[in-house]
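Appendix B. Chain record.
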Amino acid sequence: MLTLATAEGAAAAATGVTAYAWLLSSAPVSTVATYAYVNPVVAVALGWAFLGEPLSAAVVGGAALILAAVVLSTSRRPAAPSTPEPEGVPLTDAAEPAR
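Structure tokens predicted for this chain:
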């Protein structure tokens, strides 16, 4: 029985590491890094769904706050239109040296 549990654990770990490595090569690092925030929320949800663990209002509120923060940090805003510098205007704000 212990051998089967060890094999299942090793298979699950290998699957997770493989998925993480693939994601690192396919998505921006800033997006991949959010797994560290989402992972505990998923664990709590799985514990509630499969093991009947209780959920308090604080846990649900915390999970909602975490998910909202991840969505805000990974959503892309349209870039502000850039205006080209007029000709003859220096690109730096450095003051003229005193003469």
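Further analysis of this model is presented in Appendix C.
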